[in-house]
């Protein structure tokens, strides 16, 4: 078990540093156990101001990691966090959900990419998150976005990371 709970940490920035430390200092097995414990704390002792700090610390610790098995309890925590009033907390939760391969988050983000009524910046952010994860079949979705001026640049950039024989022809066509 971790030495402190999130609710015991009160000084500004300490929750972020604590989350980063406990996740970064463990081996793969300890990391998953600690993530599970942190997500349990977030769910059971939920406080809107803590969530952003803890998620930021977790993201700091996992910087450079492309995928990780979904920790136990993440689904419940994610359901709660995607309703958070602060956009940055929702975005951090989405990024972690994609990192963990959460199918609901990946489906929601894929849908956002193709939704021409969604804000272009949100669509571009979704493209970047899904590209980082290398979601299977996403190259075809990106090729379909080449004729959409709002996300064309992000789609071309993302397609450069996929090996798909039909990409060059799709780019030249659009």
Describe the structure in your own words:
There is one protein chain. The protein has 174 residues and is mainly α. It is built from ten helices and no strands. The protein has helices spanning 14-24, 28-44, 48-61, 74-81, 87-99, 103-114, 120-133, 138-144, 152-159, 167-173. The relative contact order is 0.09. The mean pLDDT is 91.
Total strands: 0
Distance between the termini: 55 Å
Helix content: 55-70%
**What structural category characterises the helix and strand content?**
mainly alpha
Q: Could you give a short account of the major beta sheet?
A: none
| Succession of helices and strands | HHHHHHHHHH
Which of globular, elongated, flat, extended, rod-shaped describes the shape? elongated
Q: Stretches where pLDDT falls below 50 for ≥5 residues? A: none
Alpha plus pi helix count: 10
Q: Concise description?
A:
This protein has ten helices and no strands. With 174 residues, the protein is mainly α.
Secondary-structure blueprint of this entry?
Blueprint: H1 14-24, H2 28-44, H3 48-61, H4 74-81, H5 87-99, H6 103-114, H7 120-133, H8 138-144, H9 152-159, H10 167-173
Helix pairs in contact: 1-2, 1-3, 2-4, 3-5, 4-5, 5-7, 6-7, 7-9
Structure keywords:
0% strand; 10 helices; mainly alpha; single chain
